[in-house]
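The instructor's notes for this session suggest beginning with a concrete chain rather than abstract definitions. Hand out the sequence below and ask the class to guess, before any prediction is shown, which regions might be ordered.
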Amino acid sequence: MSTTHDQSQALERALRLLGPLEARIMRTVWTGGIGEPFVVREMLAHLPELAYTTVMTTLNRLAEKGLLVAEAVPSQRAYAYRAASGPDAFLGAAGTRAAEELVARYGEAALAAFAAHLEALSPEERRRLERLGREP
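After discussion, reveal the predicted structure:
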C-alpha cells in the first residue's frame, strides 16, 4: 500500500505529464476538490477566470485521453464527468506507453539500458518494484 508521501509524488508526476489547464482540472478531481460526478459548471466554479467553452473543451479532451469518463445526463445536453482512474494508474499506463515507444525506437539498446538500470537498484528498490509489478 502506498504512503501519503508516495501518493503525493505520484500525483505530482502524473500532473507533470499534462498541460497546465489539464493539470489544474485533474488536481481538482484527483484530490477530491470536486464531487463526482460533476458537470462543466461545477468545474467552472473552480476556474472562474476561464470561459465555459474552454473548460468544456478541456474536459472533453481529458475524456478522449482516458483520464475522465463522460456520461450523458438524462434529458439534458450536458455530460457528467468522473475520474477514470487515479494518478497511479495513469502513471502506469503512461510509463508502459513510454517504454514501448523507447523499445520501438531504440530496440535492444533500450532494453540493455533498462537492464542496467535494474541491476543498479538497491534491494529495497527491487522489492518495491516487484510489489508494483504485482499490483493490478
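Then share the key points. The mean pLDDT is 92. The chain is about 65% helix and 5% strand.
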